[in-house]
Amino acid sequence: MPERTDVEPMQRMRICRPYLSVVIRGLFVLLLAGLLRIGNLPEPEAAPSTQLAEKGEAIFQQKCISCHSIGGGNLVGPDLKGVTSRQDRDWLKRFILAPDKMIAQKDPIAVQRLKEFKNIPMPNLGLSGGDVEALVAYLETPSEAQHGEIPGQPPAAQAKPLPPGDSLVGKDLFTGALPFQKGGTPCMACHGIAGTGALGGGTLGPDLTHVFQRFGESGLASALQGLPFPSMQGIFQDRPLTETEQAHLLALFAQVDREKVAPTAWSFIWIGLGGFIVLAGLPQVLWGKRLKGVRKRLVGGKK
């Protein structure tokens, strides 16, 4: 019988088959482990985006919540729910960074917003570029997450309704007759208001006689809670008004506005003019006749 020539390759295959099976299984295990590891990797943008939005939420609650709400309606400024879908993102960042500059440059959108909200300009909050980016990232988050409607998400803080106030107590707080509980400076040091004394108060800040009319009740209540204006932040940031003090001041501003009293600047002018007339005319009334007699004698002596 002729000798078979294919025996040796077949033997080799029988010998190598177990090793090939082990190698294939090992490769399969490695491939499966690699796929599982890739599936468990976090998305590269998810963590930084979440952290940025969290930073923006902290900035919003510290700097913005006194004038704006998210889904709670207009306050001093507009409701910011969905603002990133209504407004160009680049414009929004530029406006948040330097609103005073945008208004000074007569940006048409900024000027229109100013008119819509009673010519109360948004102050420059002194935010950095990174702060603005974080704030916009927070405003871009879904409104459900901002309001805690998604499980595990804390609700965004909103302005609280104030308890009833007493305008007479508010007047004492304004003038400093009753000190603020946490040591803040009396309002009268910088602001004037009708009905708080002859001189009415300071002139460093605007007259507050009709501030209730300008801001509206909800807007003014919100502003008193945070006092977001840069000139007031240094004074009240660590010495905020209590809710009761806010309520008393709100009652004072509402009462003064209802009385339709002239602002203190005019009162001060009339008082000053009256004082000048009195000082100029008093010597004439008291010594006019006496001086007239002296003049007659002097004139007669010359003759």
Layout of helices and strands:
Blueprint: H1 7-40, H2 46-64, H3 83-86, H4 89-97, H5 99-104, H6 108-116, H7 129-140, H8 143-146, H9 167-175, H10 211-215, H11 217-226, H12 230-236, H13 243-259, H14 264-302
Helix pairs in contact: 2-7, 4-7, 9-13, 11-13
Transmembrane segments: 20-39, 265-287
Domain Cytochrome c: 51-143, 165-257
Protein name: Cytochrome c
Structure description:
By secondary structure, the protein is mainly α. Among the domains are: 46-146, Cytochrome Bc1 Complex, Chain D, domain 2; 167-264, Orthogonal Bundle (Cytochrome Bc1 Complex, Chain D, domain 2). It is built from 14 helices and no strands. α2 (46-64) packs across α7 (129-140) and α9 (167-175) crosses α13. The longest helix is centred in the C-terminal third of the chain and has 39 residues, at 264-302. It is elongated, with a radius of gyration of 37 Å. The model is unreliable at 43-47, 148-157 and 264-273 (pLDDT under 50).
The geometry reads as elongated
Structural class: mainly alpha
Relative helix content: 55-70%
Profile the largest sheet.
none
Order of helices and strands: HHHHHHHHHHHHHH
Question: CATH top level of the domain at 46-146?
Answer: Mainly Alpha
Number of helical regions: 14
GO molecular function: electron transfer activity; heme binding; metal ion binding
Domain Cytochrome c: 51-143, 165-257
InterPro entries: Cyt_c-like_dom, Cyt_c-like_dom_sf
Pfam family, one: Cytochrom_C
